[in-house]
Amino acid sequence: MKQTTNSILMIRPVAFRMNEQTAVNNYYQKVLDGLLPATVNAKAQQEFDAFVEKLTAVGVDVTVVDDTLNPDTPDSIFPNNWISFHENGDVALYPMFAENRRHERREEILDLLEEKGFVIHNIIDYTSAEEDGFFLEGTGSLLLDRANAKAYCALSPRADEELFIEFCEDFDYAPVIFEAFQTVDSERKLIYHTNVMMCLGETFAVICSDCIDDKKERKMVLDNLKENGKEIILITEAQMNNFAGNMLEVRGVNDKRYLVMSTAAHQSLTPKQIEQLEKHAEILSSSLDTIEACGGGSARCMMAEIFLPRN
Q1: Could you state a single Gene Ontology molecular function term (predicted)?
Q2: In this structure, is residue 183 part of a structural domain?
Q3: Distance in angstroms (rounded) separating the CA atoms of residues 161 and 28
Q4: CATH number, domain containing residue 169
Q5: Beta strand 174-178 with 150-154: parallel, antiparallel or unpaired?
Q6: Does 2 map to a domain?
Q7: Which residues contact 268 (CB under 8 A, 6 or more apart)?
Q8: What single DSSP character describes residue 118?
Q9: pLDDT (0 to 100) of residue 215
Q10: Beta carbons of 290 and 69 less than 8 angstroms apart
Q11: Which pLDDT belongs to residue 32?
């Protein structure tokens, strides 16, 4: 199994704004005072377009789908939370915590990918768990080490343990389960998505291990990464708050590896960390300030990796 892909799905926003339904447990979201919703959306679109341009310029195959005005989906720019694509032609659909995010799941996106020559064999649908109040938000909640068949998951209101184990059984992944916390108003609160504190590349892992308060769990996670030969690059909680954990390794022209992140994430890294990362992949960063502030997500959240076979 490959860990990285050249193909990415991205959703261009049409009514992006801070989603009040996700702000209850996403402590990264902020209200941008004095900005009209139309201005916020226009800025997000500019950031989105510039980001896509940078990816395509290095040869990443980006499928851009425009969001629709109805229904209202302020977070549609983060498709990796509702869908994941797998090398055997399987597609997984995930149960989402916020009711208005459930409308992001659009069947016609699968049709469009098939038109582009991607092959879909099976759809594994976990969304009925929403009715019982259980959630697992895609590759936001799950960090997949595809090559070593391991899945990492920081449990939270958006990542249910039983659902995670069900996913691992369905897709043949060994589960690595832990809890990760961040300090909010001097209280330790669960981090809403695993992919804000951790990134898995082919040969490295970026992780804010300080977030794993339980020492045994922390050791267990780090041991799992070392066991698979990953170079571990530790980041601080302050760097994580600048989305330095929210990165994704992708492939460009001639299979060249790029580590994609926001400008804020890039600027938060030390020269030593940058040197460590650049041994593995070239850094590609783009300014996502509005998207990060209002959406509480960054570069990794915006990209749903497509591993499907092609005709």
Answers
A1: transferase activity
A2: yes
A3: 23
A4: 3.75.10.10
A5: parallel
A6: no
A7: 238, 239, 242, 244
A8: B
A9: 98
A10: no
A11: 55
d(CA 241, CA 28): 7
- Residue 132, by phi and psi: left (phi above 0), alpha (psi -120 to 50) or beta? alpha
Contacts 24+ apart (CB under 8 A), 165-173: 166/126, 167/92, 167/126, 167/136, 167/142, 170/92, 170/124, 171/86, 171/90, 171/92, 171/124, 173/144, 173/149
- Three-state DSSP class for 307? coil
Entry pTM: 0.93
Q: Could you please report the per-residue DSSP string of 3-57? A: S--SEEEEEE-SS----TTTTTT-TT----TT--HHHHHHHHHHHHHHHHHHHHH
Residue 31 pLDDT class (50, 70, 90 cuts): low
* Residues in a beta bridge with 232: 205
CB 90 within 8 A of CB 171: yes
Q: How many CB atoms lie within 10 A of CB 45?
A: 17
Copy the structure tokens of residue 61: 């195959």
Average pLDDT, the chain: 92
Residue-range definition of the domain harbouring residue 58: 7-305
Q: Do residues 97 and 158 lie in contact, with contact meaning Cβ atoms separated by under 8 Å?
A: yes
175 has which bridge partners? 151
Q: Note whether residue 260 is domain-resident.
A: yes
Please state the domain count of the chain.
1
Residue 1 lies in a domain: no
Handedness of CA 3, 64, 291, 135 (dihedral sign): negative
